[in-house]
Amino acid sequence: MKVLVVGSGGREHALAWALARSPRLSELHAAPGNPGIATLASCHPVHSDDQASLVPLAGELGIDLVVVGPEAPLVAGLADELRHRGVAVFGPGASAARIEGSKAFSKEVMDAAGVPTARSLAVARPPCVVKADGLAAGKGVWVCHTQAELDMGLRAAEALGQPFHVEELLEGEEVSLFAICDGTTAVALPAAQDYKRIGDGDQGPNTGGMGTYSPTPFLNETALAEVRKKILEPWLRGCAAEGIDYRGILYPGLMLTQDGPKVMEFNARFGDPETQVYLTRLENDLVELLDASVDGTLGRLELKWSATASVCVVMASAGYPGSYAKGKPITGLD
Ligand code: AMP
Ligand code: GLY
Q1: Which of 177, 264, 265 to mutate to test the pocket of ligand 1 (most atoms within 8 A of CB)?
Q2: Above 70 in pLDDT, residue 16?
Q3: Is the pLDDT of residue 136 over 70?
Q4: Which residue intervals of the chain are DSSP H helices?
């Protein structure tokens, strides 16, 4: 099979690494990729948001399966456009990816499906959480314990210039769960824990994720069964009721509260840097797995995980998640 990975981050490098191990793979391509991916795949200088060039590229290369990493092209409808041209793609269409693109829409579907989530608050009072509605690369959320933090959060949300809402602050252990969906079946991967604050000791502003490990002791089999019953299954039924055929990754960010697991957000893609830890533990053939999601045959596969643990540490340029210098060479990997 000829596979095209769309994206240029660590997540896409991990996907390329796992895809390259598949005996089913004949050619691996990436758009635009990065220097790490270039050691495994042919990279094409087309940005992941450039739908008008990506679709013909997939055609010219005779791609059998496109794997989309980031959320923005999914929300913009890349998967729909590719499917429309007869190219198989791992990732949800725009109507399904809206669960990530619009927090307000996601809340509506959760409420209708009875999925436990943070209550929306009509009046902003600390403690609470302020959330911008659209995509903000993990930086559109302000967790406010004090009035001063709330004032700052509201000012920052207003400055983004998009709608926002205020919700209950959930307390507990935070875990990321990933489920591969084929429209009717959701297969959960073992949970990973992501550390989102920039500083050591979980301090400072939120980022896209500074490090992950898997497995995590916080989501055992009993808790996972509860998540399946209260979150994944009602969610898929809710999607079906809305006419959404959900194929790809469903990634709920969960808070394990005293009242049980609650969803903080839904994402429509693989996590970064969660994918990096998962894919070193997955023993299945990733091409076969993603293909089963596309074909609607996930129910026939059994996922196999190595018992080993995996850790990913993110190194960021000084200043992140604010402004930071780009283009610095990475050395010393050997
Ligand atoms: P989100 O983009 O919605 O996942 O939010 C980013 C981060 O903000 C999450 O990973 C949590 O650490 C935090 N967060 C979001 N919503 C809540 C909430 N309702 N209660 C507590 N923390 C939250
Ligand atoms: N690691 C957080 C995310 O991918 O959204």
Answers
A1: 264
A2: yes
A3: no
A4: 10-20, 51-61, 71-75, 78-84, 94-101, 103-113, 147-160, 221-227, 233-241, 274-281, 286-295
Phi/psi at 67 (nearest 5 deg)? -115, 115
194 Cβ closer than 6 Å to some ligand 2 atom: yes
Is the CB–ligand 2 distance for residue 272 below 6 Å? yes
CATH code, 98-111+170-313? 3.30.470.20
Query: Is CATH 3.30.1490.20 the classification given to domain 119-169?
Result: yes
Q: What is the mean pLDDT of the chain?
A: 92
DSSP bridge pairs for 267 = 251
Are 198 and 216 in contact by the 8 Å Cβ rule? The answer is: no
pLDDT at 269: 92
- The number of residues in the chain equals 334
* Residues 198-257: tens digit of each pLDDT: 999 989 888 889 999 999 888 888 888 899 999 998 988 888 888 888 889 999 989 999
Q: Count Cβ neighbours within 10 Å for each residue of 283-295 and write b for 16 or more, e otherwise.
A: eebbbebbbbbbe
Can you tell me which atom of ligand 1 is nearest the CA of 170?
20
Nearest atom in ligand 2 to the alpha carbon of residue 270 is 4
Q: How far apart (Å, rounded) are the C-alpha atoms in residues 222 and 201?
A: 29
The whole-number average pLDDT for the span 172-188 is 89
Spacing, Cα 264 to ligand 1 middle (Å): 6
Per-domain boundaries in the chain = 2-90, 98-111+170-313, 119-169
To test ligand 1's pocket by mutation, which of 99, 141, 178 has the most ligand atoms within 8 angstroms of CB?
141
**pLDDT value of position 208:** 85
- pTM of whole model > 0.85? yes
| CA 223 to ligand 2 centroid distance, Å | 21
Fold of the domain built from segment(s) 2-90: Rossmann fold (3.40.50)
In the structure encoding, which two tokens stand for residue 207, read together?
């980022």
CA distances (Å), origin 79, targets 36, 82, 87, 109: 25, 5, 9, 21
Q: Answer yes or no: are the C-beta atoms of 83 and 94 closer than 8 Å.
A: no
50 C-alpha to ligand 2 centroid (Å):
22
